[in-house]
Amino acid sequence: MDVTTDELTRADAAFAGNRLLSTFAQDARALIEPFGELFDLDVGETVLRRGEPVRWSLFPVGPTMVTMTAELAGGRSAEVASVGREGAVGGIVSCGHAPAFSQARVLVPGPAFRVPMTALEDAKSRSPFISNLFCRFSDYLLAQVMQSAVCNSFHSIPERAARWLLHAQDRAGDRIELTQEAFARLLGVQRTTVNAVVRELSSEGLIATGRGTVSVVDRAGLKRRACECYQRLQDHFGAVIGATGRGG
Description:
By secondary structure, the protein is α+β, with helices and mostly antiparallel strands. Helices cover 46% and strands 21% of the residues. It is built from 9 helices and 10 strands. It has helices at residues 5-17, 26-32, 117-126, 128-154, 157-172, 180-187, 191-203, 219-225, 229-240, and strands at 37-41, 46-48, 56-60, 65-71, 77-83, 103-108, 110-116, 175-177, 207-210, 213-216. The protein has a 4-stranded antiparallel beta sheet with strand order 2-6-4-5. It has a 3-stranded antiparallel beta sheet with strand order 1-7-3. Strands 8-10-9 form a 3-stranded antiparallel beta sheet. Helix 4 (128-154) runs antiparallel to helix 9, helix 5 (157-172) packs antiparallel against helix 8 (219-225) and helix 6 crosses helix 7. The chain is globular, with a radius of gyration of 18 Å.
């Protein structure tokens, strides 16, 4: 099959714009690139539904960000993890076809590289590096869920909000497309609470808000307001994955 220059350029963008894919050597890349496609995700688009089979793995590229939420009866929900260009969504922790436990929606729109689970599982079986890399990312994703559990139990809402914004800035850049209503849902708190926190962080000159956006103005100051959980997760990602996929 002939591959066009445009297709090669888009594939290069995917492998350069995702921190997992960027660790692939050429032989590993060759195992999944022919089966993958780079496409655009829209804000609010559901990419995983609880109870439905996981057929694809999505690798967010560039600013794209996906939020994973656990839902309760009555429509209540809260974020349990989020994934951007540092990782992947769908079929990473489980092996083969398995039902999704969480709901996953696009929070920040943008491109993603989509690979069928059949191709990814075949690549894992043929490449010790790919198999090990996804085990390492599973470890990081579990660490994120565990850190979120303790964070939600012991840290204040302003600390949690600052931590969330730092992670979002790492993935999406300084300007984050986020309404305060959505922010409240992600943190699992009332909108009035988030409104007060946003006003507080804004008055301190740490963030600026616009219509449906939050911009990080003072990253160093925001880090001082955030809880320890942000840096712990950053350190753990470096330790288990880092720039090479083999950790520190």
